[in-house]
Amino acid sequence: MSTHGASLLTQAPKIVFIAIALAGCASDIMKNYVGQPVESVVLDYGPPTAIVDLGQGERAYQWRKVSTSAVSGTSSGEVRETKHGTVYEETETPGYIERQECFYTFYARASGGRWFITNFRQPKLECE
Predict the structure, then answer these.
(1) Which one is predicted more confidently, 19 or 76?
(2) Share of residues in the chain with pLDDT > 70 (%)
(3) Which residues have C-beta within 8 Å of that of residue 72, sequence separation ≥ 6?
(4) CA distances from 77 to 87, 88, 92 (A)
(5) Residue 122 lies inside a defined structural domain of this protein
(6) What pLDDT, on a 0 to 100 scale, did the predictor assign at position 46?
(7) How many domains is the chain built from?
């Protein structure tokens, strides 16, 4: 095994630990809004993308976030000796644009003419 491969094996537990530690970040932030008026979320993140009336004095407020990132392509080559001489073989992987759409939903109940956060929907794992 190469030293690079061995290095990755020793770092794998650290990477897994960091991933677990970061999981739940969005949910932890959302949890802090429970009991607060909806205006507190609006002041921090702007107006919601959608408001759904659920009936019986309940609403769902939803914020949508779209993230894009460019993933660069790669190119590698190898010189090989064949019976026809020396050949250079190149392998290319094109770059692409990665798009991630996340929805953050809070549930609220009317009280005294205002709406207060009562709960939230856990975002999908990629959005944590």
Answers:
(1) 76
(2) 81
(3) 95
(4) 10, 7, 9
(5) yes
(6) 96
(7) 1
Residue with tokens 């050949």: 87
Rounded to whole angstroms, the Cα distance separating 35 from 67 reads 29
pLDDT of residue 25: 83
Does the residue 89 lie in any domain?
A: no
pTM of the entire structure?
A: 0.64
Residue 29 and residue 125: Cα distance in Å, rounded? Answer: 14
Locus of tokens 């009991």: 35
- Is the pLDDT at 6 greater than 60? The verdict is no
| Residue 117 falls inside a structural domain | yes
Are 26 and 121 contacting, i.e. CB atoms less than 8 angstroms apart? no
* Domain presence at residue 91: no
pLDDT-based confidence at residue 10 (cuts at 50, 70, 90): low
Can you give the three-state secondary structure of 5-49, one letter per residue? Answer: HHHHHHHHHHHHHHHHHHCCHHHHHHHCCCCCEHHHHHHHHCCCC
Question: In the structure encoding, which two tokens stand for residue 75, read together?
Answer: 């190119």
Closest CA to 102 of 20, 45, 39, 58: 45
Domain that holds residue 32: 3-65+102-127
